[in-house]
Design brief:
Blueprint: E1 21-27, E2 33-39, E3 43-50, E4 53-61, E5 64-70, E6 76-86, E7 89-92, E8 96-100, E9 120-123, E10 126-129, E11 139-142, E12 154-157, E13 185-190, E14 196-202
Antiparallel strand pairs: 1-2, 2-5, 3-4, 3-6, 6-7, 6-8, 9-12, 10-11, 13-14
Length: about 210
């Protein structure tokens, strides 16, 4: 029995190539689906799949983080995936799940008593009638009592609001019995569907 040395010649770098990534997705005030994607390595082509259907394809894609908007995407729950190709070899991102809202026409102002859910998208809460209300159609938006831990309760207003430059203001009323320092109510707004600006954050310790 003898011993020998085996050698191999490798024509390409064996460093792992990072897959492309999907950071976030959301609905723009114009009703388009916005997606933020990122790549750390150049790809010959990159394909964005929505519900396993090609929505967008780029060639000669350089490393970057980019925001893209996609018109004509139907509202609803969406599954997104990004695939980068080097030659014929695919590099797939993790799946991103997002809600694409049906956006209504912009308004100069918005007010209501939640008489229906046509103008809003509600997650985790229910519309309940006000007891002894002179207006039986007036309703309140409520969580379960007690509210659940590690649960996001969300109200999304589907009409973009055109904000005045001179005297922008928002007035609304709620009863936020959430634990100070642990839980909170956050009012947010967005210009692009991806980055949300905190307008107000508070809990049960708030003094009106």
């Amino acid at each position: 029995h003898g011993r020998g040395i085996w050698s191999a010649k490798v024509g390409a770098s064996q460093h792992a190539i990072p897959a492309p990534g999907l950071l976030k997705a959301g609905s723009t005030p114009q009703g388009e689906l916005a997606v933020r994607l990122t790549t750390e390595h150049p790809f010959d082509s990159v394909t964005l799949l929505i519900d396993n259907i090609t929505a967008k394809r780029w060639t000669n894609f350089s490393p970057q983080t980019a925001d893209v908007t996609l018109p004509g995407i139907s509202p609803g729950e969406k599954t997104l995936k990004l695939i980068g190709y080097i030659g014929t070899v695919p590099y797939q991102s993790l799946v991103l799940r997002a809600t694409h809202h049906r956006i209504l026409a912009p308004k100069q102002s918005f007010s209501g008593y939640f008489t229906s859910d046509e103008l809003v998208t509600i997650r985790g809460m229910t519309l309940q009638s006000l007891e002894n209300s002179p207006q039986p159609l007036y309703k309140t938006l409520q969580t379960n009592h007690d509210y659940s831990v590690d649960q996001v309760y969300e109200l999304f207003i589907r009409s973009p609001i055109v904000v005045s430059k001179d005297m922008p203001r928002m007035i609304y009323r709620d009863i936020a019995l959430v634990e100070p320092g642990a839980d909170s109510v956050v009012v947010e707004a967005t210009l692009n569907g991806l980055d949300w600006i905190v307008l107000r954050k508070y809990d049960a310790g708030l003094t009106p």
